[in-house]
Design goal:
The structure is a homodimer of 420-residue chains.
Chain A: H1 15-28, H2 34-43, H3 45-58, H4 63-70, H5 75-92, H6 97-106, E1 109-112, E2 134-138, E3 159-164, H7 170-185, E4 189-192, H8 198-208, E5 213-216, H9 230-238, E6 242-245, H10 255-268, E7 271-276, H11 282-292, E8 297-299, H12 310-317, E9 322-323, H13 327-334, H14 336-339, H15 358-365, H16 375-382, H17 386-398, E10 402-405, E11 408-411
Parallel strand pairs in A: 3-4, 3-7, 4-5, 5-6, 7-8, 8-9
Antiparallel strand pairs in A: 1-2, 2-6, 10-11
Helix pairs in contact in A: 1-6, 2-3, 3-5, 7-8, 7-13, 10-11, 15-16, 15-17, 16-17
């Protein structure tokens, strides 16, 4: 890294340059680009961007500078990074953070980064796929009790995602309105998308109860999609809720951004409840994102004769979701007893592990509890070959010490410090 | 035991005396009387009855004779047996098997005992609570293929209980009719009670499809309860199904017999499906009997706004039942593949996959992580042709996203969500 001496800690404290860099990252890379996420996590937002810019200027990645910051990179990792720099370079010239920040100001939005107090901590569980920043109109659920809410817990930890089909039925909309209103009355926030159908019904229910709701958009926060929901989004903002996106104002809501947007809804929320969903649906994808994050998932049953409930029933059948029929059951699902599970404590270096051969021990040490890592990243961290890492991970998985999530490998809590 | 030398094996082979004794037992003791069941299992039906009669005549239990057959009895067991003999003695004089058998002949019923070829083997899983005999009008599902049914399995192992509330809705009745008819069309039998509502709808559905159904009554098979279902029960008998009870003709359907009857429905069937049930209901009790017998339990979901589905949702929430929405899912629940434990836990549908063409994406979605699937199953699930599925699978395999095992294709973990 040309600045030299950057550490992970620097990423949270690089102030103005960091914020500006995150604004750039949010426009430069597609949501969920894990190479970008890993680079920023390793070097900090501004140094990582500086390195990318230097590499683009020189026409090739500057491996010496990168490895000075992040350690030796295995060949497959280099290839992934090189490909990423290529795809970013195509867009780099058109990224203008000042323009985006000005557009944000015009529509009453601001940039919220992991350095900010209202950054939703749950997003960090996305690891390398966590967003670089959020563009926010309105107020995010606060850490620390909101006036009117139950004082015990902070709002940021009391958010339930209510998601479902655009092609909803009057039954599903009624249930979404009732659930959202009842949740808000119990001091919870609601999160959903910005679509017609269940999304809109969930927000309407939250607004009816006078409470907080977060609409997470796939495009910029200055453009309602669909336009027919523009008024609803305005109401959310003026009523103390938030309209949020990880792409800058003006950005188009593409199909892939819709799919990636679902991971934000899941990560923002303690639990995700699917109210109505067809057999294949975006709502089911949000549910699977939540399940991968080890967050509880609920599904509202409906008539088996209703295609709009088929996705809910599939989630129930597959054991992805628990059957929920009212707000009490949703709170029970999302409640604190439910997430005591693994995610609470942060990583910290893993201790020594008994009964493991040296390679397995190093691979084990290269795992995090929270941030899923790819085999090649783990190999690189552990200083073993990818083949060795793969073999060791298989053994660790058999042993219950490691777990393979969709986003990569994590260490199993209780097995970081070599017990038994 | 005065005859001496009786063994459990003898109970299946004591011929005419055994049949007559079982007719007596079925009238003498209340359904589910486990003391009677244990005595008969230990000594055989006729010797056990002889011992009871001797004890009644003498005015006290003949422990020496009993222990000669069954080994030493601990004090608490002696007390239970003594109390049982007392309660049986009150009824013994009024039991007349010849009268009951004559009444059975008059209504076209016959006595079926464990010695008979059409004795439903599943009843034996009830252990000491298994019935002493069944009074049967019509034909029980045969061991060995019935004409018209799929030849592979015998009918006796292809029975599904469809149970539910008397206070059903038109939705529940429609689902019961459809499920029963579709099951019969697939070569399955249906079992249920004789009540209005879901019971009657299940039988009607089976009859519509021209197939076998078993009505298990709490009272004698000569008396329809409720009377309004008399005609339906006749139709069942003439259509090749059966009306069945463990109490003799003329016996009244008491409340406790209704509850005990539920265990017979569960034990007769490979799986029990609750179609509609209120929060507390007899159908839920049948489901719990099935669960105790380690038989699969299904529940049909319904609107959360319908009280008639509250019991189904409760079974789903409590993890007693699996969500089932059509006959295919019921067959999957009841079928042999379901009994092989590992197949039950499926990872659920894969999430979205970037960088795949639409056909490949659908094929990818049609794969499970755990359950290997054949190409034609995958094609059917994915809604593509078999040729398309085969081509796409080849590409997915090259790509490391799918893997061909001996038993079929699976998705490769870490590639369900296709990020990066």
């Amino acid at each position: 890294m040309s600045e030299g001496g950057t550490t992970p800690a620097a990423s949270r404290a690089d102030g103005g340059a960091g914020r500006r860099a995150r604004a750039v990252w949010s426009a430069l890379v597609e949501p969920g680009d894990e190479v970008a996420g890993a680079l920023v996590a390793a070097c900090g937002a501004a140094p990582a961007l500086h390195w990318v810019d230097t590499s683009i200027r020189r026409g090739h990645p500057d491996w010496d500078a990168l490895e000075a910051a992040g350690g030796e990179l295995a060949a497959p990792v280099r290839r992934r990074v090189a490909r990423a720099v290529e795809r970013w370079s195509a867009r780099r010239a058109s990224v203008d953070p000042e323009r985006d920040l000005a557009a944000a100001r015009r529509c009453g939005a601001r940039l919220v980064t992991p350095d900010d107090g209202d950054w939703p901590a749950g997003l960090d569980d996305l690891g390398a796929a966590s967003p670089h920043a959020l563009w926010v109109r309105g107020a995010l659920p606060a850490r620390g009790a909101r006036a009117g809410a139950t004082a015990a817990a902070d709002d940021a930890s009391r958010v339930v995602a209510l998601v479902g089909a655009r092609a909803s039925t009057s039954y599903g909309e009624r249930v979404a309105v009732d659930l959202a209103a009842d949740l808000v009355r119990r001091g919870w926030w609601v999160a959903s998308g910005g679509a017609y159908g269940i999304d809109a019904a969930a927000h309407r229910g939250a607004l009816l109860a006078g409470g907080g709701t977060v609409a997470v958009l796939a495009g910029g926060v200055d453009r309602a999609y669909p336009v027919g929901n523009a008024r609803l989004l305005e109401e959310i903002v003026v009523s103390g809720g938030a309209v949020v996106s990880e792409v800058p104002p003006g950005a188009a809501p593409t199909r892939s951004r819709f799919l990636q947007r679902n991971r934000l809804i899941a990560a923002l929320s303690c639990a995700t409840v699917v109210v109505e969903a067809a057999w294949r649906s975006g709502a089911a994808s949000t549910a699977h994102h939540a399940a991968r994050l080890l967050r509880p998932v609920g599904a509202v049953p409906g008539a088996v004769t209703s295609a709009a409930s088929a996705g809910c029933h599939r989630l129930l059948r597959d054991g992805v979701a628990v059957c929920v029929t009212d707000a009490d059951e949703v709170v029970e699902l999302a409640g604190p007893t439910r997430h005591l599970a693994p995610a609470v404590e942060d990583e910290g270096p893993a201790g020594e592990v008994d009964g493991l051969d040296p390679v397995a021990r190093r691979v084990h040490d290269g795992l995090s509890r929270r941030a899923p890592r790819d085999v090649d990243v783990i190999a690189a961290r552990s200083g073993v070959s990818v083949a060795e890492a793969r073999a060791a991970l298989g053994l660790l998985e058999l042993d219950g010490r490691a777990r393979r999530l969709a986003a990569g490998w994590v260490v199993v809590p209780g097995h970081e410090s070599g017990k038994g």
